[in-house]
Amino acid sequence: MDTILVLNAGSSSLKFQVFGIAGTNGLQRMVKGQIDGVGTSPRLRAMGPDKRPLVDRAYSPDEVPDLPAATHVAGAWLREAQGFELAAVGHRVVHGGPDYARPVRLDDLVLRHLERYIPLAPLHQPNNLAPIRTLIERRPDLPQVACFDTAFHRGHSAVADHYAIPERFYAEGVRRYGFHGLSYEYVSGCLRDIAPNIASGRVIVAHLGSGASMCALSEGRSVESTLGFTALDGLPMGTRCGQIDPGVILYLIAEKGMTAAQVQDLLYRECGLKGLSGISNDVRDLLKSDDARATFALDHFVYRIGLYAGTLAASLGGLDAFVFTAGIGENSAEIRARIVEKFGWLGAELDHAANAAGELMISSGASRIALLAVPTDEELMIARHTLNLIRADKMGRSGR
Length: 400
Ligand code: AMP
Known about the structure:
With 400 residues, the protein is α/β, with parallel strands linked by helices. The chain has helices at residues 67-80, 108-115, 125-138, 158-161, 167-171, 181-194, 196-199, 246-254, 260-269, 272-277, 283-288, 292-316, 326-331, 333-342, 352-356, 378-397; strands at 2-9, 14-22, 26-36, 43-47, 53-58, 85-93, 104-105, 144-148, 202-208, 212-218, 221-225, 321-325, 370-373.
């Protein structure tokens, strides 16, 4: 069976999934794995569709010193141990800049374009691009597709896309891009399938995972996001600060003598739930803890989501549905209930039993706003895009 490999490369890990291409549109998840500790204590782990472990193997740092080596190790294991023949590779790429509003087939020229966006996402873009470069060099015949976290938001109006700073900065790329687009696109597609009347209305989707943001959808298209130029804005996250007065940054630099690198490290790694609680970035730990700081961190998280529910509802001119997704949104009935309480004034009312049971539809019959919890699947979204692009290319080449 032909397969599609989906790669999501981070700073010290390479996550991968393999999808079998079955029939006209069917994609079947076959393997989910990752190599962690790249360069320090590399370890390859993977499991099959039934969650059965397929491999758990440690490597020395010399064997897997960097992401190109990790790509090679994962590829060799998939080929030799699993016998997979790859038809294409789909990559998660954080930044498509102002130009890429949809996934793109990769070649040298596109890769060079994407390298121009490294200054816009210095922590993520170089890692995302490293396996692409490796595969272009080693497997030039293998079709590769880049899927962007920004693409789904590219239809935002100019008003929503701007910061109130001189236009020359906008021209050079300082814009409100928005992120988590693959997740929102997937959820928007699910809504179309499961509740078309809701999908055609005014919807807020809250992607609440270790990264967190909210997106306003009008007729299934993104019109506003809590994230902007980088993945730091909007909601407080596991370790990221969320919205902050730029004056705080000036204070840190001018009064505390912090360098840009130190400020970056603080804002990305030491803030959010971790910074506020001083305990953990994981909502499960905070829910279990009876420490007042844990309670406070969660109160703040829920409060900010409530504030943004109002903001995004304003961007839509009203609200028909609110959808929870990602690790916290899909799994924590308690956090969902506390958030719904915050925007109850908009006409939202929870069905507490359905919420506790983890059902898809969690609003009460009396609620004026439909409430849903929908599991996201960014990797499946990437596999679909990749399959569509390689099929379109094939049809193009055969002249049909
Ligand atoms: P994600 O980035 O979507 O994988 O989400 C990861 C985050 O989801 C973790 O850091 C946890 O904070 C959160 N999470 C996962 N499961 C639960 C749960 N059962 N209850 C609360 N939070 C959860």
